[in-house]
Amino acid sequence: MNVDGLPLPPNAPEPRTCWRIERPRTGLVRLVLDPPHRPKLPLLDVPTLRDLDLALADLADERELVGLVITGRDPLTFAGGADVEGIGSITNDELARRVVAEGQELFQRLHELSKGGGGRVFVVAAVGGPVPGGACELSLACDRIVLANDPKTRIGLPEVKLGIVPGWGGTQRLPRRTGVPAALDLILTGKLVEPQKALSLGIVDRLAQPADLVRIADEIAMGDRPCRRARRSAWKRWFIDRNPVAGAVVAHQAYKSVWKRTRGHYPAPLAALSLVVRAPRMRLGTGLHAERDAVVPLVTSPVTKSLVGLFFAAEAAKKLGEFDGRKAPAIERAAVVGAGTMGGGIARRLALSGVSVRLFDLQPAALDAVKREHARDLKQRVRRRRLQQHEADAAYDRLAITREVVGIARTEFVIEAVAERLDIKRQVLGDWAARMPPGAILATNTSSLSIDAIAEGLAEPERVVGMHFFNPVDRMPLVEVVRGTATSDETIARTARLALDLGKTPVVTRDVAGFLVNRVLGPYLDEAVRLLESGVGPERIDDALLDFGMPMGPCALLDEIGLDIAQHAGASLAAAYGPRMQTSTFLARLLEHEFLGKKSGGGIYLYESDARGRRRKRGVNPRVGAGGRELSHEDIVDRTVLAMANEAVRALEEGVVEDAATLDLATVFGMGFAPFRGGVLRFLDALGPQRAVDRLRAIHGSPDVEQATHRDRFAPAHLLLEHARNGAQFR
Ligand code: NAD
Prior knowledge:
Elements: E1 19-25, E2 28-33, H1 46-60, E3 67-72, H2 84-88, H3 93-113, E4 122-127, E5 130-132, H4 134-140, E6 144-148, E7 154-156, H5 170-178, H6 180-189, E8 192-193, H7 195-201, E9 206-208, H8 213-221, H9 234-241, H10 244-262, H11 267-278, H12 284-299, H13 302-317, E10 322-323, E11 326-327, E12 333-337, H14 341-352, E13 356-360, H15 364-383, H16 389-398, E14 399-402, E15 413-416, H17 422-435, E16 441-444, H18 451-455, E17 464-469, E18 478-483, H19 489-501, E19 505-510, H20 517-533, H21 538-548, H22 554-561, H23 563-577, H24 586-592, E20 605-609, E21 615-620, H25 633-653, H26 660-671, H27 680-687, H28 689-700, H29 708-712, H30 718-726
Parallel strand pairs: 2-3, 3-4, 4-6, 5-7, 6-9, 12-13, 12-15, 13-14, 15-16, 16-17, 18-19
Antiparallel strand pairs: 1-2, 7-8, 10-11, 17-18, 20-21
Bound molecules: nicotinamide-adenine-dinucleotide.
């Protein structure tokens, strides 16, 4: 492999140091991936690929070699796939083509050495822990794959999540193993599967307990232990995979479902679809060429740049959990006050993540409901093999419910999620502060009150912090860690560490009304309401924003949030920011008639319950009006998204978050802003700041926006004007 000009990591080690060659017995070699420059999870980067190439070259001449086992430095550590930093640094198609081609050729040489590829050595991959992307592709090039049967193991090809398709043979080798339908499902969704599922789909050939993994692989490689290749039945291969008519039907179905999910914004799943469906009918070499041609333009596409940018911003967020140069100590015991929608979700998540938690509420019914939901959720996780029974039992036991503020002398962290009233929150935190040990952190999940106001009068305001989760806690990946004037760095780091331990991505924000996400969401949602008021139908508005790439239209989102909660949030933004955040009175008219949104059976839309008790949209609420006004999708997007983007620039100007990348991350993870656009500021960059200014001015002057107060919202932010003048970009 010629590595000249390929992106080497700065700490690249000397050649022949990344793979250890072990010879446990005559005829058997183990290649152990153990790169010195990656002490945690190794990646397939230029040095590890270079050294695999050198090792294969050395082994090619060994006449007595019978079996080869490819494995990691321990049973649950193989490789975390290709180096994303490397992917991000590829800026031209020529380099992309070389990286893809070198990797393909290397894996192909391994394949040719193997029995399945016509060679003389039986090659077995013995892998476990995370085995994504390139790590999975390397395994697929072997004769057999033995996978460590452990809850930490996950295998799959998640490349589409970065906007690309598998480029080192995955689109060709996976369908040959599993058949087209299963390969499509895996590659188009990018999901990673657990060991049992991997075995039943035929991705791997055998499972082994981690302690036995390498020994069993050794035996298989040497022919001492039979291990049949997990293959699809011959008739399925013939009838579905090799038959062009069946292929066309499968492709059509998959195309429809990809289109529904992506609305054509993500080119990778469509490219992958075509490769996977044709794979069993092509020679491997031809298929690899087609894969190469498909992946190269994707690597340098704007979608990949956006998705890789988000990946790095999320990685950078992990540093927030550090204090004094090392990881802040983990929270082991926590308490949650308030067992409602949010408190219940937070307490369950804490217990699931290994934290012992006491959940306190005045209402026994609320506490019981959380415990029931906890049991139901854990049972489901066991059924889906996400947890083992003993782990679920332990998670159940970690959540204690109580109506007494007792047993908290060793509790290090309390988060309150009681009613949104300053007096109650102050009183709750004051009571708890007095009973908790010195140094314990007092967090609030408030969405609209000031952290400073809540901390006022408390003995140690440096211990008070906002920890703003989003609803539903289980699914929303973002947590805003809100820094009050007195909050200490240590409190911030420990809170961020806790968010990370809960599997969330933290962003630190200043203590301003709405923090970051709700502040920028406010004008967006209010513009949607104003469009409704002006006679544009909610379905038209939602459709325009779905087309833009939002996961849900703003009218459906308002119903989901609850019109009462949205109105309350809007009022607090207006109180803080004045006229430009003044909201329309339209929602109040629906609220007068008890239309609170989905939870009450009606809001902007009407809902009905299906057989499983889930609320489904039934149609538009007649009280919303006929909705006959035809406004173009572009105009709808301009009004709503530019109102949000302009506010986002103001927040950036005020330093509400540290930088533009953090702001973008918060908009994607906190509100689902179209990920392929990379966040709201990257969207402004793509549009061009000058064009954004022109469009804002056009809206500002349009007869639609006649109220002077409302117009303020569209006065371009200073920083946007400055960027337009200087031709600068936000990212
Ligand atoms: P909720 O009404 O569902 O639950 C509040 C719970 O607090 C109730 O069970 C109530 O019995 C309990 N409670 C009230 N006073 C108490 C006290 N003095 N001591 C102990 N328990 C008490 O409310 P929610 O929607 O879960 O919201 C809670 C907090 O989270 C609010 O500050 C809200 O602004 C914030 N928040 C809500 C959302 C959301 O979408 N619901 C999102 C983010 C943040």
